[in-house]
Amino acid sequence: MKIAMVQMRIAAGDVAANRARGLALIAEAALNADVVVLPEIWTTGYALRQVAEMAEDETGPTLNGIREIAAREKVTVVAGSLCLRRHGRIYNEAVVVGPDGGTVANYAKVHLFSMTGEERFFAAGDRRCLFDIGGVRAGLAICYDLRFPELFRSLTHEGAQIIFMPSEWPLVRAIPWQILSRARAIENQTYICAVNCVGEHRGSPFAGQSLLIAPDGEIVAAGGAEEAIIYGEADPAAVAVVREGMKVWQDRRPEVYL
After folding, report:
1. 255 in catalytic set
2. CA-based, 20 to 30 A from 109: which of 39, 51, 120, 186?
3. Mean pLDDT across 203-213
4. What is the pLDDT of residue 200?
């Protein structure tokens, strides 16, 4: 599975410019990948006070544009997360679009980031999300979810071989970004695809450093500090190899922990 991580520069509040840039990067990445992955709330950035005006629904121009590219290029697009309106509420929601242009999966961010008051602007999700890409079982998480290992354990326990994690993670916390992303891969013996953005918001730069991490913790591909499309290969067979070599799953004793 060839993955393209779209580490784009986000201009907070400039939906039209972000959408145009994001769709152009998706179209470019789709030429050389099976799966294209974007960052968290990439059309709006963290202009949270404007979320009510900027939120779209699933028939809005952003997802319609993604559907056209996905169907034309026959790729799966993990469309980062978007500010989506459903049933009168707004969610920080990841959408996966399949190679036929249809919706494969939706995941609303479960853990809202209280340090920026996300709970004042978004409704929290209340379910895990797993889906298939060409026979590979995949899961979704978003940014702050990274600090909650129970979610990643549950996704892997239910069969995830790769977990995609769109993010808008700041440079000031780049060390936890690297360590926790690798830890989630190592402890669950699964691929982690963590896609971040670059640029800044109110003077605070984002970390970039998007990561594709193998089930043994090896970094397969990584981004730097600038806008880029980062390509990497994920081999689902490696998950079974790593688990056979280190039998963590067989040695678990959940009756003690739960």
Report:
1. no
2. 186
3. 97
4. 93
The H helix count followed by the E strand count for the chain is 8, 14
Token reading at 80: 């980062």
Contact 234, 193 (CB under 8 A): yes
Q: Which of 40, 56, 118, 168 is flagged as catalytic? A: 40
Please state which CATH number belongs to domain 2-257: 3.60.110.10
Each residue of 64-86: b (16+ CB within 10 Å) or e?
ebbbebbeebebbbbbbbbbbbe
| Domain locations in the chain as residue ranges | 2-257
- The residue annotated as part of the active site, out of 83, 129, 143, 193, is 143
Structure tokens at 160: 């995830």
Q: Which stretches of the chain are DSSP H helices?
A: 15-30, 51-54, 61-73, 149-157, 174-188, 237-245, 248-251, 254-257
Query: Residue 237 corresponds to which amino acid?
Result: A
Residue 258 has pLDDT above 90, yes or no: no
Rounded Cα–Cα distance for residues 95 and 103 (Å): 7
